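Lab notebook, bench 4. Still working through the backlog of constructs that have no structural model yet. Next entry is a single chain of 385 residues. Request: give me the structure tokens for it.
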Amino acid sequence: MKLPSNLIIEADGGSRGNPGLAGSGACVIDADSGEVILEISKFIGIATNNVAEYIALVAGLEGAYGLNPDARVLVRMDSKLVIEQMAGRWKIKHPDMQQLGARVQKLVAGKQVRWQWIPREENSRADALANKAMDEQGDDVVTAVADSPRSPVVEFNQTMPSSVRAPGGVTEELTTVVLIRHGRTHLTESKRISGRGGENPGLSELGRGDAHKAAKAVAEIGNSGPWAHLSPVSAIVTSPIQRTLDTAHILANELGLGVSVNEDIAEISFGDWDGHTNAEVMSKWAEAFQSWQGSWTVSPPNGESLENFDERIQAGRRSILAEHRGKTVAVVSHVMPIRGFLKAGMDAGIASYWRPQISPCSITIIRFWGDQAAEVITMNATSHL
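Model written out:
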């Protein structure tokens, strides 16, 4: 049986009296499937609320590392005190908590652990287990659970294409690609063509605001929300164009990751049409524009044909899949490159370069097994904006 490699711990503690009768509760969740694996309920006796919170954390960590000592762990608690102290931002002053804090640090030494504060209402399962411990005042209870997924996704296979009609014999390792279109620029806002070449603006104020919202949505992948069943993003790749670089660095700050640049995923070159509106192009280059529409081989004046662009973008896609095989990678790019990834993901034709709408700071997620198989999880998601 494959050990779960990405785990979430939800922990909570309570005290009726503070100090008073205290209990702790913790859930250990498989982040890839959203299933609750363990539920832990511990009656403590007389203790403060903060001590109960720490004991819940210790119980959760021991349960998680008992399942897989090498797992990547996300700790989610509604105790701001514990999260900030364990993240190293606040000092631990109380002697009892210093001892418990040292115990936690010993458990997580050399491990991959992230700390996340959540609102109380998002920690209801651990809270219920802590209250159960205080109500029953019995022995510690550790329960192995086969819970329903936290995500509404039911027909989902963690390692292979989900559809039973997908091709068999897939041997390539799964790589999940999270595609984010860059935020708005002044050219986007004025509906002007903005490709590879010409003016190279950064994000506008509105564009930066949208990029921060997209970054928060990407940070939830593998942790919470509609894509909790996927693995968290572990790398960021961006186009070299300024608007994507700005968006990628906002994402990097949110995720605590570095950024690498891939030249092949830059936007298509519109040549002489760059910076003009569609109406201006249709007026000034009417014949060339009509020949270009729907064509695979015709390029704009001094620009790039779809045929040449597709060759470039698929080379970029393959290099990203090879470099990040088996992981989840965020790719910050443009309308046409994202459509190119979709073309490969759906094994589609030329029409995929104009039919999908790709909005600024939208999120598109595709799972690739090399070039053997693919699965589109979502396209042009914008609910976070």
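Notes after review: The chain has eleven helices and twelve strands. The first helix runs from residue 49 to 67. Flag for follow-up if needed.
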